[in-house]
Design brief:
Shape: globular
Largest sheet: 3 strands, antiparallel
Distance between the termini: 12 Å
Order of helices and strands: EEEHHH
CATH architecture: Alpha-Beta Complex
Radius of gyration: 12 Å
Number of strands: 3
CATH class: Alpha Beta
Strand order of the largest sheet: 1-2-3
Helix content: 40-55%
Length: about 90
């Protein structure tokens, strides 16, 4: 199932990803630092959604209190809560 999350407090405007059998696929950030966000998507392809959310939650970028990785964690948690996919 595809999810789109509108971010808050970071350069990326939104994040799109799929969850299939609890695994992440096709993670795409719209905006943000292209090299870093593309790398996040490649590294996490096929990873367990809940484990990724637990690992990335709270990651901070420059004292913003959040980051693109933290926003991805929040998006995954929302997807899990809304659809019991984790």
């Amino acid at each position: 199932m595809n999810y789109i999350y509108n971010t808050k407090g970071v350069c990326a405007r939104k994040i799109s990803f799929d969850v299939d059998d609890g695994k992440l696929h096709n993670i795409k950030f719209f905006g943000g630092c292209p090299g870093n966000t593309a790398a996040i998507g490649k590294i996490l392809e096929g990873a367990d959604a809940k484990s990724v959310a637990d690992m990335l939650k709270g990651n901070d970028c420059g004292g913003k209190g959040t980051s693109c990785a933290d926003q991805l964690a929040r998006a995954i948690e929302d997807a899990i809560k809304q659809n019991d996919v984790g």
